[in-house]
TrEMBL record:
Keywords: Oxidoreductase
PROSITE patterns found in the cross-reference section: ADH_SHORT (PS00061)
Gene3D superfamilies per record: NAD(P)-binding Rossmann-like Domain
Family, similarity comment: Belongs to the short-chain dehydrogenases/reductases (SDR) family.
MF GO annotations: gluconate 5-dehydrogenase activity
This enzyme's EC code(s): 1.1.1.69
SUPFAM superfamilies with a match to the protein in the record: NAD(P)-binding Rossmann-fold domains
InterPro entries: NAD(P)-bd_dom_sf, Sc_DH/Rdtase_CS, SDR_fam
CDD domains per UniProt: Ga5DH-like_SDR_c
Broadest EC class assigned to this enzyme: oxidoreductase
Organism the protein comes from: Candidatus Coprenecus avistercoris
Name listed for the protein in its UniProt record: Gluconate 5-dehydrogenase
């Protein structure tokens, strides 16, 4: 029988107090994993622990800025001491800045690259040695439509997520022989706090133009929900995907396959 179980596995999901990370971690708990997560702000870690507890999940929460290598090294050491060796890493923590490129400060560009690309490198580097010693592991990077497509105002984010696609492929290439599989999930447009500004109602109560635009660009004719990501995330964390490596699994309702509605 195909095994989607995560029983006895320890999963670290970064930035998982809420949003996509929280949904993925909750699905992992349902599949039997022990959940570890981090956030930058202590109050968000507390909020996350309470949210997990509401689902009956006894998660382990830590304060850590994933862009700070010393903090990340300390986080991984503490997890290994207090919980156990990490079997599954989901590099989920991420930010976006929607600014026309010619108006974006270099410091703003660098900040997005730091969180969305440098941090997955830092955290993956921290967990790989123990995964090798343990005989294998799973690394899942949360990519994006912007790993493949550009659009106005998201230059830094697209550069980071495009880089994250290639970092995924390189980790897969470099560590496949140690039974470490590294894959990506490329969510489409998902209803979370990060995309709330793109969905907010207009003053007259009408839908945000970007909301209507995305629904028209998506064959599924809807925004995704965090629930849509749970199954793909469990698949890539389980032994069912042991021969899947370097793959970006797009969970986008068909956006990348679709040229757009033909003129009526
Ligand atoms: P979100 O609601 O903004 O949540 C992002 C999480 O990352 C928050 O918990 C945030 O914590 C945390 N974080 C940010 N910077 C961090 C840092 N330096 N160290 C530790 N944690 C940090 O985003 P989301 O929509 O759930 O997205 C999660 C991931 O999916 C991101 O990588 C995003 O790029 C990607 N994604 C989202 C969509 C979508 O449509 N929503 C689609 C494709 C990909 P704070 O609250 O403390 O900042
Ligand atoms: C944006 C959105 C997207 C989504 C996601 C799509 O401003 O275009 O935030 O970037 O977050 O990355 O896959």
């Amino acid at each position: 029988m195909v095994d989607f179980s995560l029983k006895d596995k320890i999963a670290l999901v970064t930035g998982a107090s809420y949003g996509i990370g929280f949904a993925i971690a909750s699905a992992y708990a349902e599949a039997g994993a022990t959940i570890v997560f981090n956030d930058i702000k202590p109050e968000l870690v507390e909020k996350g622990l309470a949210s997990y507890a509401e689902l009956g999940i006894k998660a382990h929460g830590y304060v850590c800025d994933v862009t700070d290598e010393a903090q990340v090294q300390d986080l991984v050491a503490r997890i290994e001491k207090e919980v156990g060796v990490i079997d599954i890493l989901v590099n989920n923590a991420g930010i976006i800045k929607r600014i026309p490129m010619h108006e974006m400060k270099a410091s703003e560009f660098r900040q997005v690259i730091d969180v969305d690309l440098n941090a997955p490198f830092i955290v993956s580097k921290a967990v790989i040695p123990s995964m090798i010693k343990k005989g294998g592991g799973k690394i899942i990077n949360i990519c994006s439509m912007m790993s493949e497509l550009g659009r106005e105002t998201v230059s830094a984010y697209a550069a980071a997520k495009g880089g994250l696609k290639m970092l995924t492929r390189n980790i897969a290439s470099e560590y496949g022989e140690y039974n470490i599989q590294c894959n990506g999930i490329g969510p489409g447009y998902i209803a979370t706090p990060q995309t709330a500004p793109l969905r907010e109602r207009q003053p007259d109560g009408s839908r945000h133009p970007f909301d209507s635009f995305i629904v028209a660009k998506t064959p599924a004719a809807r925004w995704g929900t965090t629930d849509d990501l749970k199954g793909p995330a469990v698949f890539l964390a389980s032994s069912a995907s042991d021969f899947v490596n370097g793959h970006i699994l797009y969970v986008d309702g068909g956006i990348l396959a679709y040229i757009g509605k033909q003129p009526q």
